[in-house]
Design goal:
about 30% helix; globular; 16 helices; alpha/beta; about 525 residues; 18 strands; 5-stranded antiparallel β-sheet; about 20% strand
Length: about 525
């Protein structure tokens, strides 16, 4: 068995008049595949969306902020890592340097095998991606008998009227090297959509207002076209119940009889039991709509927005403003409503969505708590003969602060040997719930320990303030499952070079270009 997965960046699920329109090849491909018409992407952002597809994990959990994001395979098993363990050869062809560096959840084709004239410093056009594939597939010498090959290919719809034909040519190219519907899972999709021009939101407008499209939670932006061809399953089928892009990961593993990894973060369900096989003997489950959430920004970023959706209702939540809006969905149209004016059945649907939002928000709670507890245990010694004073400062989320405070609360100091906490945060907490802690109203001149819970790497004033606090011990805890948070651009540049060294050591000139760029933007 093989997998050929093609995604086209920012294509909508429907036809429109601009370059983000559903592709003609998608209409053609649907005749020989399974189409899901209601697919919610985990994020309207390429890096977040693809990382979620490759792991089956909600995108917001996978990183703290975009600048520091480097996918951490030690924390999250990926489709490619699991396939590689089973002897698969996994490769990707990605168009943009930044995407190649951040999307390490897939395996870029080895740098030493790239065709002549290809540089990591370049943004590859669609035709260049196609020529790349044509060159390397020829060199692979498959003899039209490929087996256990995984290819993940990235195309770009922007300002290229030939995108559809290049995608079609790519499918035919793989066919010519023996990747057929009988021995290959073919997937064709987008990573996210794009705001419809009819709403007045254009790339030029976003650039002028210094906005990015990923903050919009409208269906034109979060719903994706998705087609999959599974050998032995009926093609030319359309399933209209809602699914999430997170369902892809468990479905492929289920089809290949590969065990889903064990994790406290949980996985969405496989879709195989809902699909009809060719022999007609397999009884399918009754179709149901799967609740799905889509997130703008990672867990620790500002301007974070999330939505939870089913087929006819949606809630949109702003974490900065702590406000929820309610939408009714009718086909491709949606409109915001006031919930107080709606009947009880609609209110119950929205209540279900709100409960799902809260439930998924706390999915990583235990994983974070376990990680943080290890770190804090090194900073606090139980049984101290004096009171232990802690200055706890945070620009983080209420979520992280609750975890840290609960960890501190579990140190069962007696009244004579209590933990005293000075908490400085914009968030509100019910401090009476933490009976083993004493919270200080006033500052003291010197602390035994100071802790900074950091999720935003853009607030240097916060870091300066933290450094001004006097304490015996100091710890900055990055609220992330995927690495540290970097304040200085040059340190981040060194990290980029290290994590992407297969590119930079092969092309040393890129190192100089990176630092020249930093100097110019100083």
């Amino acid at each position: 068995m093989n997998i050929v997965w093609i995604f086209v960046d920012s294509v909508r699920r429907y036809h429109s008049t601009d370059d983000r329109s559903r592709l003609e090849i998608m209409d053609k491909f649907s005749a020989s595949s399974i189409e899901f018409t209601e697919v919610v992407t985990s994020a309207p952002s390429t890096v977040m969306s693809i990382s979620a597809m490759m792991t089956g994990i909600h995108s917001f959990v996978l990183g703290t902020n975009y600048n520091d994001f480097r996918f951490n395979r030690k924390t999250f098993p990926t489709l490619t890592s699991l396939l590689s363990e089973k002897g698969w050869d996994c490769n990707a062809a990605l168009m943009h340097p930044d995407i190649r560096e951040k999307l390490t959840c897939v395996n870029m084709y080895p740098r030493n095998k790239w065709p002549h004239g290809y540089s990591h410093g370049d943004w590859w056009s669609n035709i260049k991606i196609y020529n790349f594939l044509a060159n390397v597939l020829k060199k692979e010498n498959l003899n039209k008998k490929p087996n256990k090959k995984f290819w993940f290919i990235d195309f770009n719809c922007r300002k290229d009227p030939n995108t559809s034909s290049i995608v079609e040519d790519t499918l035919q190219l793989f066919n010519s090297y023996g990747f057929t519907k009988s021995n290959t899972i073919f997937i064709l999709c987008s990573d996210h959509g794009y705001p419809d021009p009819s709403k007045g939101i254009t790339p030029d407008l976003l650039k002028k207002k210094k906005l990015t499209h990923d903050i919009f939670m409208t269906d034109d932006n979060i719903m994706i076209p998705f087609f999959i061809s599974l050998p032995k399953y009926k093609v030319n089928k359309k399933y209209t119940y809602q699914i999430s892009s997170l369902n892809i990961f468990p479905t492929i593993l289920d089809y290949l009889n590969i065990e889903i990894p064990k994790t406290s973060l949980n996985y969405s369900s496989s879709l195989l039991d809902y699909l009809e096989e060719n022999d007609g003997l397999h009884k399918t489950k009754k179709s149901i709509d799967i609740l799905a959430r889509s997130d703008a920004r990672f867990l620790g970023q500002s301007k974070r927005v999330c939505c939870v959706r089913n087929k006819d209702t949606k809630i949109i939540y702003s974490y900065d403003d702590k406000k929820i809006s309610y939408n009714i969905i009718e086909g491709l149209n949606e409109k915001e409503i006031k919930i107080n004016s709606q009947n009880q059945s609609i209110k119950e649907k929205f209540k279900l969505l709100k409960n799902y939002l809260k439930e998924t928000d706390y999915l990583p709670y235990q994983t974070f708590k376990k990680n943080f507890a290890k770190r804090i245990s090194f900073l606090i010694k139980e049984g101290s003969k004096k009171r232990f004073n802690i200055f706890l400062f945070s620009n983080s989320l209420n979520f992280f602060e609750e975890i840290i405070i609960s960890i501190l609360n579990e140190y069962n100091f007696s009244n004579e040997h209590a933990l005293e906490i000075k908490l400085v945060t914009k968030n509100k907490h019910s401090l009476k719930n933490y009976r083993n802690l004493r919270f200080l109203d006033k500052d003291i001149s010197f602390y035994n320990l100071k802790i900074f819970l950091q999720t935003d790497n853009g607030k240097n004033l916060d870091l300066r303030f933290f450094k001004s606090i006097k304490a015996s011990k100091s710890s900055i805890i990055p609220c992330s499952l995927t690495g540290s948070i970097t304040q200085k651009r040059y340190i981040r540049a060194f990290k980029t070079i290290w994590y992407s060294r297969s590119y930079y050591l092969f092309e040393p000139k890129l190192i100089f270009k990176l630092f020249i760029k930093l100097l110019k933007n100083k």
